């Protein structure tokens, strides 16, 4: 099983939130809205793959390369937003946790937090 990377910086230099804004994402602090954006982004990315394969079948290689690059960029933004959601959930868990258990963090598998 493949582990999804947990990123702390965007493009290896910007803080995570600034990087998301850099990719034209509105900075929303509600976890539910970020999760909703991730569902939308995954659905549109999957839907964009089908027309991209039509471009390849018609031998429009430049257009298909641009299309696959856009899909790859969208996947990168999905991973960035997911990392921000995980970070916000950990912060919320620490704030709501009791003082006896504040030093331990529950390990949740990637299949639960992927989207």
What helical percentage do the residues reach? 55-70%
Q: End-to-end span in angstroms?
A: 16 Å
Mean pLDDT: 78
Number of strands: 2
Transmembrane segments: 6-25, 37-55, 61-81
Keywords: Membrane, Transmembrane, Transmembrane helix
Fold and architecture overview:
This protein has a domain at 28-95. It is mainly alpha-helical. Strands 1-2 form a two-stranded antiparallel ribbon. It starts with 8 loop residues before the first strand and ends with a helix. The chain is 64% helix and 3% strand. α1 (16-22) runs antiparallel to α3. The protein is elongated. The model has no long low-confidence stretch (mean pLDDT 78).
Topology:
Elements: E1 9-10, E2 14-15, H1 16-22, H2 31-57, H3 61-96, H4 110-113
Antiparallel strand pairs: 1-2
Helix pairs in contact: 1-3, 2-3
Which keywords apply here?
115 residues, mainly alpha, two-stranded antiparallel sheet, elongated
Summarize the structure.
The chain is built from 4 helices and 2 strands, in the order ββαααα. It is mainly α and about 120 residues long. The protein is elongated and about 55 Å long.
């Amino acid at each position: 099983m493949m582990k999804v990377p947990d990123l702390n910086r965007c493009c290896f230099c910007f803080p995570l939130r600034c990087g998301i804004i850099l990719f034209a994402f509105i900075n929303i602090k509600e976890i539910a809205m970020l999760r909703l954006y991730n569902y939308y982004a995954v659905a549109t990315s999957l839907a964009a793959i089908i027309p991209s394969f039509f471009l390849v079948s018609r031998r429009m290689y430049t257009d298909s390369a641009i299309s696959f690059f856009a899909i790859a960029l969208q996947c990168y933004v999905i991973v960035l937003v997911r990392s921000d959601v995980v970070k916000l959930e950990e912060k919320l868990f620490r704030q709501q946790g009791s003082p006896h258990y504040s030093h331990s963090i529950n390990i949740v598998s990637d299949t639960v937090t992927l989207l």
